Amino acid sequence: MKIHRPTSLLVLSILLLADDEAGKIMRPADKSSHKSGTVDIVATAPSGKLELDGKPLEVAQPFPNVFHGEMKVAPGAHSLVLKWEGGRKEVRFFSGPNAPAEFTAFQQHPPIAGIECTQCHELTARARFRFKGGCFDCHKTDGFEKVHTHPSGMLEECGMCHNAHGSTVKAHLLHTKETACKLCHQ
Fold first, then answer.
1. CATH number, span 6-182
2. What residue ranges do the domains of the chain occupy?
3. Tell me: the pLDDT tens digits for 26-56?
4. Which of 12, 99, 119, 178 has the fewest CB atoms within 10 Å, counting from its CB?
């Protein structure tokens, strides 16, 4: 197994961070299904605007460029669009029973209601919202190496592989194991 040179990792990290800076819909996940009619929305973009099924959506903005809200939606397929100057992201999700095969059940993370954003995030001195670490505030380090191929100290950003807001796949993975490994290894 060959490991990329550090410069390759640096370039990859910069690209991942640049994508994070542009705009993101963290919740709901693309092609997710939600049994209840209530959908939790979490998104971030500079001066962003949200649309649900083509109509402007008003949600709370608890921090600069961060959008959060719970929306009651009718059963069926929906489109959530995040727009900002120079960019656009869209996710499709389904609400209600009997979701079509293209939609997969969403597992929210954290699974406990009432967790505040500030448990995992903070504002920097420049008023930027960022992850402050702390996965191990809830998750135990015991057994970490049983499910990961690297010791916990090697993995600085859980978000390279996991969506901390929820996902439609096991362990809230962003990629398959094979794809995740190839981010650093050939």
1. 2.60.40.10
2. 6-182
3. 899 999 999 888 899 999 999 899 999 999 9
4. 178
